[in-house]
Write a structure and sequence with these properties.
307 residues, Spore Coat Polysaccharide Biosynthesis Protein SpsA, Chain A, alpha/beta, 9 helices, 9-stranded mixed sheet, 9 strands
Length: 307
């Protein structure tokens, strides 16, 4: 049974999002049998912005005993590893990662912990629901909940687990010593690569819609260039990190096939923009696979998107 859990929020230059995130965490339900501790890892140049936000909410967050750390080395995997180090030093049983542009339901943390205990699994990923700054603008290109009325719970059939609302039990980062790959600080994709390594070692990963996190989609993400950059980055990082364990030659060949096949597949659907654009995004991912297989790196996270 869990005794202590660290809720880790890694942030960088998004004060509006962070304030919204912390306000929701202040409403979390607590339990006398479980210690929840909030850790904020600021990956910006200084702590000034985060300090001001936290100081204004300390009384509301008192039940979570919040702590703020500065990780000046840029890169989300570095910030996440700082959170893992903190959890290890605190003798925590699990870390729950939440993005700074997300908010949560009051039962979020306790439900993730309950599911982990009932499933005896190594990670639990919650459902993510979206709020769009520009309603009906490219909403169909973001992952959406299934829409099922009854809550569902299922084991993952692959390792594609993002960290936007995921509990990671101590076995992965404690006993197994898994860490996020700091060799790719600004590319993105290191969460998928982390769970790929866990998956290959036999980790049990579970998804649940019994609770959820809500993610705010900034208008800057609801654009054709951003969506294409996201697809390119997905292919680029997969090939760079060789997430699936394939050789660079295999990634190169697969990328060439995807680029040509899906580019051609888009042509007959030019009068149906949504369908055509889906094929364009797949072709763009294919080009990312090609570029990544050749060793070229796209550091998408050099710039912060959002506020």
């Amino acid at each position: 049974m869990m005794g202590a859990v660290v809720i880790a929020v890694c942030t960088r230059d998004r004060p509006v999002s962070l304030g919204r995130c912390l306000a929701s965490l202040a409403e979390l339900k607590l339990s006398s049998s479980l210690s929840l501790k909030l850790l904020i890892v600021d990956n910006g140049v200084s702590l000034e912005g985060s300090t001001g936000i936290l100081d204004g909410m300390k009384s509301r967050l008192a039940g979570l005993s919040p702590e703020l750390l500065h990780e000046p080395r840029p890169g989300i995997p570095i910030a996440r590893n700082r959170a893992l180090d903190f959890a290890r030093a605190s003798n925590a049983d699990a870390v729950i990662f939440l993005d700074d542009d997300q908010t949560v339901s009051p039962d979020w943390a306790l439900t993730l912990c309950r599911v982990q205990e009932e499933e005896a699994c190594d990670a639990v990923k919650c459902e993510v629901r979206w709020i769009f700054e520009r309603p009906q603008k490219f909403e169909e290109f973001f992952d959406r909940p299934s829409g099922k009325v009854e809550p569902t719970r299922r084991p993952y059939s692959s390792y594609v687990v993002p960290t936007n609302g995921v509990l990671i039990a101590r076995r992965l980062w404690g006993e197994w010593g898994l860490r996020f790959n700091e060799n790719f600080p600004l590319t993105g994709g290191t969460d998928i690569e982390f769970f790929a390594r866990a998956w290959r070692r036999g980790a049990r990963l579970v998804y649940t819609s019994e609770t959820f996190a809500t993610e705010f989609c900034d208008a800057a993400k609801q654009t054709v260039p951003w969506l294409m950059r996201r697809s390119f980055r997905a292919g680029n990082t997969e090939a760079l990190m060789r997430v699936r364990g394939r050789s660079r030659i295999e990634y190169f060949g697969r990328g060439i096939f995807w680029t040509l096949y899906y580019a051609l597949a888009a042509i007959p659907h030019l009068l149906r923009p949504t369908i055509s654009f889906r094929y364009v995004l797949k072709a763009t991912k294919g080009f990312g696979l090609v570029v990544g297989s050749l060793g070229f790196r796209w550091n998408e996270y050099r710039n912060v998107v959002g506020r």
